[in-house]
Amino acid sequence: QLGLVESGGGSVQPGGSLRLSCTAQSGFLGAYGVGWFRQAPGKEREGLSCIRFSGEGAQYADSVKGRFTISREHAKNSAYLQMDNLKPEDTAVYYCAVLLHTCSATVVNNPDTYSGWGPGTQVTVSS
Fold first, then answer.
1. Strand-pair category, 10-12 with 121-125
2. DSSP type of residue 46
3. I want to staple 125 with a disulfide (CB 3.0 to 4.6 A). Which of 2, 7, 47, 86 is the partner?
4. Residues whose CB is less than 8 angstroms from the CB of residue 106 and which lie 6 or more positions away in sequence, other chains included
5. Which residues contact 56 (CB under 8 A, 6 or more apart)?
């Protein structure tokens, strides 16, 4: 178990930015692909983005493409989700998880291909 922990959530006005971090408390996160999901109240968990262990091959859901950027830093045992031009509909709890398959368009929104979910961090976008 890597013990993933998300951080960086908070409250922001529409059009603002946040940078979420996903850090492994034990083990080497760099050996795995990583994905980000979110879940709003009353809605299903939505896959947002994934990235390969190499840092290449990033995939994005259409709802965040062009606004969110996934990255990773092996030296810090972490992955990140830079979120720009945030909208009220981005309000949700955001989760990271280890990807059990190669990041591709077919797995980015399939929660069954992920494991080791973190506890989540709340993001609220409102004026």
1. parallel
2. E
3. 86
4. none
5. none
How far apart, in whole angstroms, are the C-alpha atoms of residue 30 and residue 32? 5
Q: Which of 33, 34, 16, 14 is nearest to 94 (CA)?
A: 34
The owner of tokens 């280890």 is 98
- For 53-73, the pLDDT digits (tens) are 999 999 999 999 999 999 999
pLDDT less than 50: residues of the chain: none
Residues 6+ apart with CB under 8 A from 59: 49, 50, 51, 103, 104, 105, 107, 108
* Helix (H), strand (E) counts: the chain: 0, 11
For residue 75, give the 3-state DSSP assignment.
Answer: helix
CB 60 within 8 A of CB 48: yes
